[in-house]
Design brief:
By secondary structure, this protein is α/β, with parallel strands linked by helices. Helices cover 49% and strands 10% of the residues. The protein has two domains: 160 residues, P-loop containing nucleotide triphosphate hydrolases (Rossmann fold); 115 residues, Zinc Finger, Delta Prime, domain 3, CATH 1.20.272. The protein has a six-stranded mixed sheet, sandwiched between helices. A hairpin with a 2-residue loop joins strand 2 and strand 3. The longest helix is centred in the last third of the chain and has 20 residues.
């Protein structure tokens, strides 16, 4: 539903020649949102006769896709370091300094924009505020609140929700039952839990994503945007909706996003991050 509304909105802006130059697409499924962005780039450029839009290859003369997997740190270490570095943004700025090859829009899509490090974000500010010529930039993120406010304010934000993807799997149920049992205990119990729980590998990020999905479910239920995602009698809502205000739920979600981001791109301790989270919930 949101995809259709967003598509018609952007298409209408394009037809009326009121298209903005920078959009922040906020959605949990970044891969899906990226395809939406690529399809829209194709739409606004396909009017150019003979334009070979090789969108499926993620690049053609007027499109540049930026991802953390292509950063120098990732290539050097042969793994995704969860960071988009300043060199990549300098490449973006250089790419946008040239006129479109086919005469329509120069387009940039940045996957997981929350992975832009601080230097990269600061380097991107002027381009976001005053891009040259016919330019359109899409920043895609499932964690938009972790971006610098100066980046956020320079983009028009559009939200992509797919309520069906907020369903809780059996594996998540098991994790949640354990975590929700800890949340309502004394601080000493929480500290003991963080000392013994296994946070190696992807365990910590999986735990945070599970909690984030749960509290997003609660928030959507709280505001009436999703009525049946979790049965109200379920053990997973033992901390009932009445125990959390809308603002409290928003703050919890922001904190989870912030902690996940910090641990992903720095040497921050997952155990310390989990302690902070359990104390704040």
């Amino acid at each position: 539903m949101e995809h259709e509304k967003n598509w018609e909105f952007l298409k209408g802006k394009y037809t009326a020649r009121q298209l903005g130059h920078a959009y922040l697409f906020s959605g949990r499924d970044v891969v899906d949102v990226k395809q939406f962005a690529k399809n829209f780039v194709k739409l606004i450029n396909e009017s150019i006769a003979g334009s070979p839009l090789a969108i499926e290859k993620e690049q053609f003369p007027d499109l540049l896709v930026v991802a953390s997997r292509n950063s120098e740190s990732s290539l050097k270490n042969e793994k995704d370091m969860m960071e988009i570095d300043v060199k990549q943004i300098r490449d973006v700025n250089n790419f946008l300094s040239y006129k479109p090859y086919y005469g329509n829009y120069k387009a940039v899509i940045i996957e997981h924009a929350d992975r832009l490090n601080t230097e990269a974000q600061n380097s991107f500010l002027k381009t976001l505020e005053e891009p040259k010529g016919k330019t359109i930039i899409f920043l895609l993120s499932s964690k938009p609140d972790t971006l610098l406010s100066t980046i956020f304010s320079r983009c028009q934000t559009m939200t992509f929700l797919d309520h069906g993807k907020y369903r809780i799997s059996p594996a998540e149920q098991k994790t949640l039952q354990e975590l929700l049992g800890i949340i309502n205990t004394e601080l000493a119990v929480k500290f003991q839990y963080t000392k013994k729980v296994n946070l190696e590998g992807d365990n910590f990020s999986t735990m945070l994503e599970t909690l984030q999905r749960h509290f997003r479910n609660l928030l959507l239920m709280k505001i009436g945007a999703m009525e049946e995602s979790i049965p109200r009698s379920s053990a997973l809502v033992s901390a009932s909706l009445s125990d959390f205000s809308t603002e409290k739920l928003k703050n919890i979600i922001r904190l989870i996003e912030k902690l996940n981001h910090q641990v992903s791109i720095t040497n921050a301790s997952p155990k310390l991050a989990l302690e902070v989270l359990l104390m704040e919930i």
